[in-house]
Amino acid sequence: MYNIINFNEEELKKWMKENGEQPFRSKQVINWIYKGITSFDEMKNVSSKTQENLANNFYIGTPTIVRKLVSTIDGTIKYLMKLHDGNIIECVLMKYKHGNSICISSQVGCRMGCTFCASTIGGRVRNLDSGEMLGQIIAVSKDINERISNVVMMGSGEPLDNYDNVLKFLEEVGKEYGLNIGARHITLSTCGIVPEILELSEKGLQITLAISLHASNDEIRKKSMPIANKYTIKEVIEACKQYICKTKRRVTFEYALIEGLNDEKEHAEELATLLKGMLCHVNLIPINEVKESGYKKPDKKRIDSFKSILEKNKIETTVRREMGADINAACGQLRRDYVNE
Ligand code: SF4
């Protein structure tokens, strides 16, 4: 059995042809899938014989919403979703003036081991396929009955640890007959897997690359991000320069501020030296506290002082606006609580 969302129009057309169906029906089938149907018998303009043939060979891999937390402050919605095999993932919808933005997961769990992240506590369970990533957007769009115009790949999982499926997702998400979300409206966030950043840069995609840097030197980075034992900050920055050169896109550096670990003035200065002159932007993220890690968020004064040092060095810097403060489970925490129940 295959997840039908993994088949694009061409691939489904081919399957229809080889399996005694009329190829033109593939368009109708795909339209229904992107409307968020959960069963083949909901496809009103498709014969019951074709519905049966499809049901015997495919399943619809759109995740099912099992829990929803809605912020009364800004309308942010955190979703817990069940996949076809019973695994649970999280995704988040954020409502902005410029449109709806969704943060999706790319793996069940994660094996990267960042100490500030709840998604990694149980390790990586499995990769999501491209259809399961598209499916999160389809399910949420159906739930809110609105179009989603921006995607951030920043939920559970390391996208570049699931490179082939993520690449297929990036190709499919822009298709006009499907979700029609352009590359410039997509951000891929990675902890910095250098060979895949270099490979991705060769594709010349117009997506935004975001690097979870979170430290200004390797010594500190190694304390919270095991990937730093494999690739140095210097190697990550060099790969980003290559990415900028190939795509002409500005790279974002994510920096989670953790009190007493990476939020001192000298860290800001060190970071400024690393990034000076690059086509980049720093996004400071006052950390979400994870029960298991004991990390604390710095106060506003420390955050502002860190930001002003970067700005003095002409590095564009923002502090991530807290969305859904009243439903503020850290990334991966909601899933852990649900699975533990
Ligand atoms: S921060 Fe990202 S890469 Fe690190 S463990 Fe969490 S999901 Fe994985």
UniProtKB/TrEMBL annotation:
<dbReference type="GO" id="GO:0046872">
    <property type="term" value="F:metal ion binding"/>
</dbReference>
<feature type="active site" description="S-methylcysteine intermediate">
    <location>
        <position position="331"/>
    </location>
</feature>
<keyword id="KW-0479">Metal-binding</keyword>
<dbReference type="GO" id="GO:0005737">
    <property type="term" value="C:cytoplasm"/>
</dbReference>
<dbReference type="GO" id="GO:0070475">
    <property type="term" value="P:rRNA base methylation"/>
</dbReference>
<dbReference type="GO" id="GO:0000049">
    <property type="term" value="F:tRNA binding"/>
</dbReference>
<keyword id="KW-1015">Disulfide bond</keyword>
<dbReference type="GO" id="GO:0070040">
    <property type="term" value="F:rRNA (adenine(2503)-C2-)-methyltransferase activity"/>
</dbReference>
<dbReference type="InterPro" id="IPR004383">
    <property type="entry name" value="rRNA_lsu_MTrfase_RlmN/Cfr"/>
</dbReference>
<feature type="active site" description="Proton acceptor">
    <location>
        <position position="90"/>
    </location>
</feature>
<keyword id="KW-0411">Iron-sulfur</keyword>
<dbReference type="InterPro" id="IPR006638">
    <property type="entry name" value="Elp3/MiaA/NifB-like_rSAM"/>
</dbReference>
<dbReference type="InterPro" id="IPR027492">
    <property type="entry name" value="RNA_MTrfase_RlmN"/>
</dbReference>
<feature type="binding site">
    <location>
        <begin position="157"/>
        <end position="158"/>
    </location>
    <ligand>
        <name>S-adenosyl-L-methionine</name>
    </ligand>
</feature>
<feature type="binding site">
    <location>
        <begin position="212"/>
        <end position="214"/>
    </location>
    <ligand>
        <name>S-adenosyl-L-methionine</name>
    </ligand>
</feature>
<keyword id="KW-0489">Methyltransferase</keyword>
<dbReference type="Pfam" id="PF04055">
    <property type="entry name" value="Radical_SAM"/>
</dbReference>
<dbReference type="GO" id="GO:0019843">
    <property type="term" value="F:rRNA binding"/>
</dbReference>
<feature type="domain" description="Radical SAM core">
    <location>
        <begin position="96"/>
        <end position="326"/>
    </location>
</feature>
<dbReference type="Pfam" id="PF21016">
    <property type="entry name" value="RlmN_N"/>
</dbReference>
<feature type="binding site">
    <location>
        <position position="110"/>
    </location>
    <ligand>
        <name>[4Fe-4S] cluster</name>
    </ligand>
</feature>
<dbReference type="InterPro" id="IPR007197">
    <property type="entry name" value="rSAM"/>
</dbReference>
<comment type="similarity">
    <text>Belongs to the radical SAM superfamily. RlmN family.</text>
</comment>
<keyword id="KW-0949">S-adenosyl-L-methionine</keyword>
<feature type="binding site">
    <location>
        <position position="189"/>
    </location>
    <ligand>
        <name>S-adenosyl-L-methionine</name>
    </ligand>
</feature>
<dbReference type="InterPro" id="IPR048641">
    <property type="entry name" value="RlmN_N"/>
</dbReference>
<dbReference type="InterPro" id="IPR013785">
    <property type="entry name" value="Aldolase_TIM"/>
</dbReference>
<keyword id="KW-0819">tRNA processing</keyword>
<keyword id="KW-0004">4Fe-4S</keyword>
<dbReference type="InterPro" id="IPR040072">
    <property type="entry name" value="Methyltransferase_A"/>
</dbReference>
<feature type="binding site">
    <location>
        <position position="114"/>
    </location>
    <ligand>
        <name>[4Fe-4S] cluster</name>
    </ligand>
</feature>
<dbReference type="GO" id="GO:0030488">
    <property type="term" value="P:tRNA methylation"/>
</dbReference>
<keyword id="KW-0408">Iron</keyword>
<keyword id="KW-0963">Cytoplasm</keyword>
<feature type="binding site">
    <location>
        <position position="288"/>
    </location>
    <ligand>
        <name>S-adenosyl-L-methionine</name>
    </ligand>
</feature>
<comment type="function">
    <text>Specifically methylates position 2 of adenine 2503 in 23S rRNA and position 2 of adenine 37 in tRNAs.</text>
</comment>
<dbReference type="GO" id="GO:0051539">
    <property type="term" value="F:4 iron, 4 sulfur cluster binding"/>
</dbReference>
<dbReference type="InterPro" id="IPR058240">
    <property type="entry name" value="rSAM_sf"/>
</dbReference>
<keyword id="KW-0698">rRNA processing</keyword>
<protein>
    <recommendedName>
        <fullName>Probable dual-specificity RNA methyltransferase RlmN</fullName>
        <ecNumber>2.1.1.192</ecNumber>
    </recommendedName>
</protein>
<feature type="binding site">
    <location>
        <position position="117"/>
    </location>
    <ligand>
        <name>[4Fe-4S] cluster</name>
    </ligand>
</feature>
<keyword id="KW-0808">Transferase</keyword>
